[in-house]
Amino acid sequence: MARAKQWSEGADRTICQMRADGATWADIGRRLRMSRNTVIERGRRLRASAPARRGAPKPEVEPLEDPNREPLCAGHPRTWGLLSDAPYPIGDTP
Q1: Mean pLDDT for each consecutive 10-residue tract of the chain (94 residues)?
Q2: pTM of the full structure
Q3: Is residue 32 part of a domain?
């Protein structure tokens, strides 16, 4: 049976510091000459976490149409595309 790995304080500090700097688990494993999965398991026990990711800014969403507005007449330009793939007939105004 395999013996449990004896972790040193230096290895624990390396895991925590590299992870806080945004290093991948694979990079940390290469530095410590251990498998990625071994380092992941130890990092979880140490609660080592990567910095929060910054995502792309969310696009602003158009406000929804007023649900209490008056109904649109048949063939209105705003609803024409829902009824037909043909372009809205400009000369024929309902």
Answers
A1: 82 94 94 94 91 75 78 78 70 56
A2: 0.55
A3: yes
Burial of 18 (0-12, 13-18, 19+ CB in 10 A): buried
Residue type, 50: A
Question: What domain count does the chain have?
Answer: 1
pLDDT score recorded for residue 67: 81
Q: 37 is in which domain, residue-wise?
A: 9-46
